[in-house]
Amino acid sequence: MIKAEHLTKKYGQKIAVNDISFQVQTGKVTGFLGPNGAGKSTTMRLMLGLNNGGGATLFNGKPLYEYRRPSKMVGVLLEAKAFHPTRSARNHLKILSTEGGIPLSRVDEVLDIVGLKAEAKKGPGKFSLGMSQRLGLAAALLAQPKYLILDEPANGLDPEGIVWLREFLKSYADKDKGVFVSSHLLSEMSLLADNVVVIGKGRVLADTSMKDFIDGNVSTSVYVRVSDKEKLIKILDQQKISYKKKNSGFEIHDSKTDKIGKLAFDNKITILELASISASLEEAFLEVTAGAEEYTGKGVNK
Amino acid sequence: MISEIKAEFKKVFTIRSTYIILALMLALVIFFGFYVGGWHSNKVDLLNPFRIYDIAKQAINFLSIFPALIGLLLFTHEFRYNLTSYSLTLSNDRSKVLLAKVLVVSLVALVSTAIIGSLSPLLSEWGIHANHLTLAHQTFYFSALAWKGLVYGWGYAMAGLVIAVLIRNQIGAIVTLFIVPGTVEGLLSLLLKNNTVYLPFSALHRMLGAGIGVGQTSLSAVDAMLVFFGYLIISWGIAWILFLKRDAS
Prior knowledge:
A: 4-stranded antiparallel sheet; elongated; B: mainly alpha
């Protein structure tokens, strides 16, 4: 388990990360969410000791610097374009292997895993963002580390690449390893992450499972279309259940399909259509981070 | 520690700029040694009994900036291309990373200086003979050239590296390396006059016996070396602390 405790970082008077604590468990993908400027990248850098600040991060009970080979404990992807533009992709990875005490045979293996074997001899200066991300991921995977810390790894990937990344990270976590990943692609994150840590203005706003995060922050609704609308309205009013008309039916708030189904059955109302309106991660995220955005655009009515 | 050193060697020798710098350095060794110091020698130069010795010193003085530049680029590339996040997470100690760079740059500087110091007098002799000129009997202080030349080349490279560690910005560090030894210390010499030798690069020139302000003081080569080492130790102390304490971004 990665245990981040009381991470704090100040830039002059501005507090970028304010006493953040959370955990990353093995066997699970933990999503790291927050608006722009919330402190996600700074938090990751603090965890790895790249930025100096308050607090500590323990990897299986010890700080990273206490491991003889930190590469075996954590693989990182913090910047997609972190490479020398004219040094070949293979040489780039060979250097990292040497530095981390990793067998050089792993270089071609990871290039194959991320689909860059054909580009191994090329300087990555002209790589697209997606290819750069793949090279960054290859670097993170070199030592088959216990944990992966990835900052926006899906940026720039094509749809096939995003699906591949999702399946790859899930299967990586399934091998009793931990994956800590930030992303702005909320729909993707909802499919990928088991747990979620949400920060805003340098503070933890939520640290829970993905399901609990969505269920706890967005009310569930039911859409129902019936034969006798007047009768249903009367019953809903009697039971003080809030609803609104939607298309030719009703959206009933804070309810589940089984409850509405039973209500209709008990009152002999024929149901023509019944469906739950599932809450999205985006809705939950916007709910939780409302007021915690560092930067907001104008000219669009939300 | 061995892993870090091996990795730094690979970093130096897997980028184009290293080979361009070394090629340029060798081309200038040939130009200054064979043509300027040999083929194109005038009659007064040919009568100088220290001609070849002086050529070797001048070549080291002019060309030591090249290994210094390799060291500077080795460090500043890490920050320019965000490679430092890898270096510092793959190693368990920032000091090891810095020490590995120092050792690798030291070796590159010593080998480069040895090449400059040995090739330039040989090429000079060859140039003189190729142009059918006659050179006066020569006195060559081999051991003096060896220690002074190697200390100069190594010292220059360490100065280049420490500038890189302190400034981190590649352009800023290169500009500083180019203007401090000549322009800045040259301007300061107008104020300091004979005391110019107590400036770092002027002390280094004095030790080698070539370059700015060499004839303006009676400071011995060893004392001049100690003056330079004083600056080097202080600046490396500051650089080391900053490397440990600063955010790696």
